[in-house]
Amino acid sequence: MLRKTLFALVAAIAVSGSSAVSAADTKSVEVMHWWTSGGEARALEVLKDGLKQRGYAWKDAPIAGGGGEAARTVLKARVASGNPPDAIQMLGFTIPEYASQDFLTNLDSIAAKEGWDKLVPGPIQRFSKVDGHWVAVPVDVHRTNWIWANKKIFDQLHLTPPQTFDQLVADAAVIRKAGYTPLAHGGQPWQEATIFDSAVMSAGGPKFYSQALVNLDPAALGSKTMEKAFDQMRALRGMVDPNFPGRDWNLATSMVINGKAAMQIMGDWAKGEFVNAGKKANVDYLCFQYPGTQGDFIFNTDQFATFKKSDASVPGENAFASTVMDKGVQAKFNQIKGAIPARLDVPSDGFDECGQKSMADLRTALKSGTMVGSFAHGHAMPDGPKNAVYDVVTHFFNTNESSADAVKQLVDAVNNAK
Ligand code: BGC
């Protein structure tokens, strides 16, 4: 009901012509995003330059807050007041949510002209297209089941990437004894959820992950396997430092870069921070999969949608979409951002070993149908159940609740939110 009202409001403003000046008039595109860390901001420059080359200025509308929750809140408010940005970074289920209310520009003609159907992996198109129409354009493929490690600490303690979760626990004890924090973590719900992506995959594999977090099957959610995922979360909680609450993700990454902490479990946007600090893969830092998820691919793709305005021609929006999908732009952007291109035709040269590994693993997972969407970043379930699961995971991480109780909470929370 509220959504319908919002749409009516925006439509009325658009008809009366009193909306914010359109992109076509100003030759600029206002872009809302949450890329405010050092690495993210540097990657963004590539998109800005690409747009400039197409004759449009980039009007920056950054909303700080990793994972984008703050940006989504601001977007809601701006849409409610009839003043959405021209373009916005969006994740997963947020795209169909806005598209189904008819807010987003149809990008079919530019998609057909540039052949996007053949270039973008199916599991990503599932969010870029709604009812068969392109409404969002993907710029990257991030992966959440990564661990980033300080190589000097690993070498000093004669550690190699742990292959099992038990080995990770044993390594953490060695690291702690040597005076380092085993795990750099920022206590924010989305960061705990990001770790949970890996814990669920490690406990049960891709089929279980999908049954539980995509299909929301109560039997999988309430299973002993899910208890194991919470057991892993409990063990990880024991590896953090006392100052973790509220810490931003990039400050946690700095702890690994500066040698205060040995590891961080985080999506590969963390690599963007290493790149920005001039650090090199396998020289200064190690990248490896969370134990038990080797070869598995939990994806999180940043897409951009453009909002319908009173001006039907929206040339700025098309130039913007074309910039985001540009082959050269995607290569350059992702080498800085830490992700890999959303286009499958970008060559892997120019990417470091972590990037090349991700590119190879993505293709394997695509073939075997095991490329699964990140729960933490909105690609597994819609916002309602997602927020409910966030609460359960964060509550568990920050209390002494038992895994058995957490699993019961999980089943109830999802049931109530469905
Ligand atoms: C986005 C990444 C971003 C990260 C931290 C994720 O939700 O997909 O692009 O770097 O949040 O801000």
From TrEMBL:
The primary location reported for this protein is periplasm
Q: What InterPro entries does its record include?
A: Bact_solute-bd_prot1 (IPR050490), SBP (IPR006059)
Q: Which UniProt keywords apply?
A: Signal, Transport
Judging by the UniProt lineage, the source's domain of life is Bacteria
Q: Where in the cell is it found?
A: Periplasm
- Per the record, a Pfam family? SBP_bac_1
User: Record's SUPFAM superfamilies?
Assistant: Periplasmic binding protein-like II
- Annotated signal peptide: 1-23
- Explain the purpose of this protein: Part of a binding-protein-dependent transport system for a sugar.
Which PANTHER family did the record assign? ARABINOSE-BINDING PROTEIN-RELATED (PTHR43649), BINDING PROTEIN COMPONENT OF ABC SUGAR TRANSPORTER-RELATED (PTHR43649:SF28)
Question: Into which family does the record put it?
Answer: Belongs to the bacterial solute-binding protein 1 family.
Q: What is this protein called?
A: Probable sugar-binding periplasmic protein
